# Entry
Amino acid sequence: MDQPLPAAADKPVLARAERHPEKAHRPDNAVARKPAWIRVKAPNSPEYAETKRLVREFGLSTVCEEAACPNIGECWKSKHATFMIMGDTCTRACAFCNVRTGLPGALNPHEPGNVGAAVARLGLRHVVITSVDRDDLADGGAAHFAAVVAAIHATAPGVTVEILTPDFLRKPGAVETVLAAGPDVFNHNLETVPRLYPTIRPGARYFASLRLLARIKEIDPAQFTKSGLMVGLGESWGEMLQVMDDLRAAEVDFLTVGQYLQPTPKHAPVDRFWTPEEFAKLADAARAKGFLMVSASPLTRSSYHAGDDFAALRAARLAKLAGADARA
Ligand code: SF4
# Structure
């Protein structure tokens, strides 16, 4: 089945203009037909249905549904859902993102407990927590993020927690607050190359995002860090290599790269579909630059196979440390 996947949710589906009021006046961009290597199967397994039932039972949002992720059938079959906290409405208006935009409501004080309970019920080993941007909150939602991580640790001990955070732009102290909660992986996506920020991520600043990643390692050099990029928005090969260098300068451990897919005609058009062979070359180039882990394929998303990848990431660090010891 092609992506996006409208059947993923039985939540009320808002009209496009309601989900993205800031984009309503824009001319439509034709949605390009996807190449054969992008096609995915319809989500219809019993495990998928059970994951969806639990998400509803606990009243949670997932980025899998909100972003119309093409991998939802595969991920939810193995109960791997990425929870999106702090509501379903984002204060930014990125040109690539299908998450609803507008003025969000108040934070739900029960959300940390609900996420912890859902993680325990799903029987996960590793969970990914992401959020909308909350520029309206004084701390950008950092304390709430930390409360969710703490609730998972308390309710589902032994589960490793990966967080995929907003940039906390102009929210001093936010990174420190989130980090103090003890996430196992701290992910913040750069998303695209700096030249494209004004059109693709207009509310963000490339060097602020990069600085956030560097800051995490300054505070805790042992913290695993991760970042992701999309291709297909008009970036060049050389620009991708430059961003990889920037990420390595910030000592980021794990890089993910996936193909951008245009969610609606109001979103940025796909410039081109990178081929699986080009993804393999990107992965080779990234490994040569020293990332501990690289995941690059057309359907790679930040949270895709995150549990297995975290195990491999830990193993890669141990192998690197063992190699360093042997040479000493
Ligand atoms: S790749 Fe991530 S966002 Fe997509 S379905 Fe899987 S867990 Fe959800």
Remarks:
- The beta strands are 61-62, 82-85, 126-131, 160-164, 185-187, 224-231, 254-259, 293-296.
- The two ends are 53 Å apart (CA to CA).
- The pocket of iron/sulfur cluster is lined by residues 63-64, 69, 71-72, 75, 80, 82, 301, 303-304 (CB under 6 Å).
- DSSP finds twelve helices and eight strands in the chain.
